[in-house]
Every structure is written in C-alpha cells, then in structure tokens.
Amino acid sequence: MQDTREIFWNVGYGSIPVMYLLSLAAVAVMARGFMKLAEAWLRGRPLDRFNRAGERCSRFISETLTQKRVLRVADGGVPHAGLFWGFTTMFAGTLLVMLQADLLTPLFHVNLLSGRFYRLFSLALDLAGMLAMLALGALFVRRFLTRPDGLESRREDWLIHLLLFTILVTGFLIEGSRMAATEVRDNPGLALWSPGGLLVARMITFMGADALRGLHRGLWWFHLLIALAFIIVIPRTKLRHLFTTSGNSFFAPLEDQGKIETIDMEDERRERFGASGISDLTWKDLFDADACTACKRCQDRCPAWATGKQLSPMKVIRQIGGIASGAASDSLVETVTREAIWACTTCGACQEICPADIEHIVKIVEMRRSLTLMDGEFAGDEVRRAAGSIEVNGNPFGMAPASRGAWAEGLPVSVMARDSKVDILYFAGCYASFDPRNRKVAESFVRICAAAGIRVGILGHEERCCGEPARKMGNEYLYQTAARENIAAFRRYGVGHIVTACPHCFTTLGQEYRELGFEVPVEHHSTFIASLVERKRVKLASESFDFTWHDSCYLGRHNGVYQEPRTILTGAGGKLLEMALSGRDSFCCGAGGGRILAEERSGRRINAERVRMAMETGAGTLVSGCPFCLSMFEEGLSAGVQEPAMRALDLAEIVAARLR
Q: Do the domain assignments include residue 256?
C-alpha cells in the first residue's frame, strides 16, 4: 500500500468551492481591517523607509525567520519563537496541500505527497503542531498564572489564546479521527509518522466507522470556520503584530538607532516644530504603535522606570496608538505627561531590546521639541539657565569662552589658531574643558598621544559645546547654532581627523553633523588608543588591578564600541569583573538625553543604582569612557560615603598611568 492519503477524505471535492469562497471573504474582511489601520498610519507625516530595499529585505528575512530579536530574552521569547515556528511550518504545509490538490493532481497527475516525502511531511507537521501546543501552553501560564509584574492582560488576550488552542486541538482531532478510520488498522506503519494524530486516534478507536466519519466531518467545518475567524480578527486585535512586527524589521532605520530628524530652521513655510499631535509624528511612528506586542521588555530595561519615575516606553507607544485610533485625547503632551517626556535619558535600552524594532527615542525628542521650541518650556529652571549659557558662552556652565583651552597650558598641545599642523584635533568638550575632574582625562589623553609621537591640536576658545544636550532636550535651534559655529572652525583650519573622549560629542560630530554637511572622520579616544596599542605606538606596563567596565550608552548601544576598551584594560594587567547589566544590556548612568543639565526630582537616582551594580562586582575600580558617566559616578560614589570602597576612572587615566 502506497504511503499517502486522500486530501479531502470524507469531506468531498464539492466542498472546495465553498471553502475557497469563505476563505476569500475572510481575507477580504481582514484586508478591510488593515486598510482602516493604514488610514490611521497615514495621518502621520511622510518618511522614506523604502530606500536600500535589498538591505531591508535581507534583514526582514533574517529577523523574521530566526526570531533572533524575540529570543534575546528567554522568558517569553523562547515559547513565542516556538509558536511562530510551529504555525509557520503548519502554514507552509497547508500551502503545499493546496498546491497538490489544486495544481499537481488535476493538471499534472503528480502526487508529491506520497512515499518517503509524505512520511517526512506528516512527521514535520505533527511535530510543528505539538511544538505550537507546548509553546502556547507556556505563554498561557506566563500571561495568566505566573504573570510578571507590569505584564498587562486584557480580554482579547483570552480570546487569542482560546482561538489558537481551538485551532490546534481541532486540527489534531481531525487528524486523529481520520487516522482511526483509515490508518491505525489498515496502515499502522504510516500512522507512526504522525505521532500527535496517532495519540488521538488510539483514544477514539472505540468509535464506529460512521461515528468517526461524522466526528471528522463536523470538526473539519468547525476548524475551517475557527481558522477563518482567526484571520478576520487579526487586524482588530494585537494579532496584527503578525504583520506589523515583521514589517517593522523592514522599516526599521538602517543608521544609528537614536538618529533624529534635522529640522530646516530657516524654512519659513514650516508653522510647527516638534510633535504636539498625531499629525506631527511620522507614519512610521504610528505604525510602531500597531507593531508593539506589549511584551514590556522596553519597560523592564528603562532606567527611568527602574528607578521609580513615570516614564514607561511601552506605555508611551500604546498612548500614541490610543490617540491615533481616536481612543484618547488629541494632545500628545497631555496624554504622555511632561514628567514622562522629560525623564528619558535617550539611552536606547528600550530600542535595543525591543523585538518589534520600535523607535521610542525619536518620539520623545519630538515631543520635547514641541515643548521647548513652541511653548518655551524646559525640564527645569536649571536647564533654561544652561541653555542660556550655551547660547552666550558656548558651554552650559556659564564660564568665559576665553578660558576654554586653559586646561592644556603646559601640555604638548597646539592651539589651531597659532599652529594647525597637527595629526589630530582633540575636541575636548565642555566637561574636559571646565570640570576639574574631567580635565585630568584630557591631560591623560594628551600624554598618551605625546608618548606615541602624535601631534595634538585644540580649538581652544573657538570650541563650543557640540550642542548634543540641548538637542536631546528639544532645543534644535540652539543645537544647530552651536554646531554651525564648530563646523566653521573645523573648516577654517582644514581639520582632517577629530578625536574626542566624550561619546556624546563623538556621536554628534561624527553622525549628526553629517546632516549639516560636515563629514570629517571622528573617533572616540577608546578606539584611538586601542589602535595606538595595537600598532605598538605606545607600550603599557602590566600592573595588576581589578575593574568593572561601564558601557556608556552612546559609546556602546549607539555606536557599537564594546570590545576595544576591555582589550586595552585587560592588556594593562586588569582583571575584568562584569556587572550584571553590561554590553548592549548596560544600564544608563542617568546623564544622557540632556539629563546631565537637569536635576533628578522623582524616584531614586539612576547613578546611585548603577554604582550599586558596580560595587556588587567587588571590583576596586569603576572604569568608563564618558565624562558624563565619570561625573555621575563620582557623585554616586561620594554620596553619603566618607571613603568610597571604589574609585571611578576614565580609560585614558589608566593607560597614561601605565605608559612605558
């Protein structure tokens, strides 16, 4: 007996037209639902996310099939990926059955589903169905029985689980009743290749042939109707993420995850800046709301939420979706709240962990722009004063511009106005220029360069704040003013290579200034020092010490620099003790997003939380590569402690102390 089966056994080929008519109707209703969603998305501003289509398609296929972003977190991620792979395999099997029934058999008289291929086909579909059942069960337990804090459940979650369970259970019952009537006795060898169906079949073999046929026929139609109902509700429930989340892997940005739009401040036709309503956001911002699965990963990783503040990245996205669907007030600011908007550090942890490629940062910055540029609001009076100081003095401290290069007196450094024949321009930044603690970092870097024979130049009094803190606080006008002055100075001296110790300056000069027409290579001092060590331009004495490395958000997540600092420090004799949250999962120091200019008025202090994580490693030294982080750690370590058990240092300080 040939190993195969009759595709429409007991149902009859006369059922095919009815099945297809019902299926087409269900797909049409589903399409109508997505058209209504698209109407909401198109309320947003235009945005080109179809460029570099080949690159986008490659990422779409890779992320969707591997579920690698979903698998970043095992809790919930593993069963979700299992459910996806199970249903994807069964869907592919259904398409193959349709191909056999509607094309291969009637037109070519070829039966692909026979012999060894059919046995493997049956086994694959049964295993896929059982995998989906196990995964769905695990997700049910997690959502409804052992629900983690912050995971919200609604009535539609019950509906979705019920639909999926019903589809899977009826599928196995249909297969089991067919096998009980046709395979268990007549072809038991073939039945072994359908383990799930065989288990059901053995449970109902006591039924007579007519009863089995009646059960099979009734369940077949019921299964079809439930599957069609599932199709219909996809755009009307969170099941829409089956399309929108995978779609977002195509639409996600190909550049830095925190990149924000550079506004043409001289465009007289523009009446508004920033986002106060839905129409001020882009269509992708609104699409994100429908791609969100409310898995709360972003909320779990948010340093503001973790320290008791009002900001939840997940809630921000859902609130935007509520406004887009007409279920909430039209005002973004009033819905999201000012406290939540100002609390963001733009660290990127939410976007890094999000399985749906949602862009949280740009939405918050756009709301800040509306508050600052349109309404004249700031996160606090201290931010208003800092902005005024940047505008007048070129730094947030209100220090005289003439003293900006004073830190370099007595060091082998050339001021570009007097001597521009240098190998690199060192962009010191505001903290290394005026903060006594961070001046030591700049001095250390210069000593390293001198040991390597690198001629270093600085702009001195011509250097201004890069503008990044002001920009992230929503003051695009002030950012562009500072940026254009810096760019003019760079061009005046024909600068060809810039190095900075500040990841915020590094990101701004190297990426965001490109939008203003400046494209000179910019490097962070960690990778620059690493190249000097690798090329043996500098040699280090190995001195034993233990340390923990803090991955600055703007050096790590925003720019992908993780290994070079660790390599340098371990090569200098250091023993690395990693914090619980490190690498791309690193926890913020609390200073990003312009928060370095603002007081932390609600919840616990973020820097204290990060210092606590560092001290738990037992390391004697907390090393970073960011002046903001260093300042925050100095404050966190000294708060209420006479003699801190840990010291905070910059990478350059450790290297300079070990120059041989």
A: yes
List 648's β-bridge partners, or say none: 622
Query: Is 384 a domain residue?
Result: no
> Predicted confidence band at 1 (pLDDT cuts at 50, 70, 90)?
low
Residues 366 and 306 in one domain: yes
pLDDT at 130 over 70: yes
Alpha-carbon distance of 628 to 345, in angstroms, equals: 12
The CATH number of residue 77's host domain is: 1.20.950
Indicate the length of the chain as a whole number: 660
pLDDT value of position 630:
98
3-state secondary structure of 647: strand
Going by the DSSP 8-state scheme, the letter that residue 377 receives in this structure is -
DSSP letters spanning 529-548: HHHHHHTTSS-B----EEEE
Tokens of 228: 């069609």
Same domain membership, residue 452 and residue 332: no
Predicted local distance difference test score (pLDDT) of residue 330: 83
Whole-prediction pTM: 0.93
Could you read off the pLDDT of 604-644 as tens digits, one per residue? Answer: 999 999 999 999 999 999 999 999 999 999 999 987 555 66
Q: What's the number of CA atoms in the CB half-sphere (13 Å) around residue 348?
A: 21
* Domain of 602, in residue numbers: 539-657
- 8 Å CB contact between 80 and 87: no
Q: Which residues contact 179 (CB under 8 A, 6 or more apart)?
A: 191, 194, 197, 198, 200, 201
Same domain membership, residue 209 and residue 148? yes
Domain check: are 167 and 221 in the same one? yes
What tokens does 287 get?
A: 């699409």
- Tell me how far apart the alpha carbons of residues 37 and 423 are, in angstroms, rounded to a whole number: 55
**Do 258 and 243 share a structural domain?**
no
The mean pLDDT value of the chain amounts to 95
Q: 366 with 407, same domain?
A: no
Nearest to 656 by CA among 454, 429, 426, 451: 451
Co-location of 66 and 184 in the same domain: yes
Q: Where are the alpha helices (DSSP H) in 42-114?
A: 53-66, 74-99
Q: What is the CATH number of the domain that holds 610?
A: 3.40.50.10700
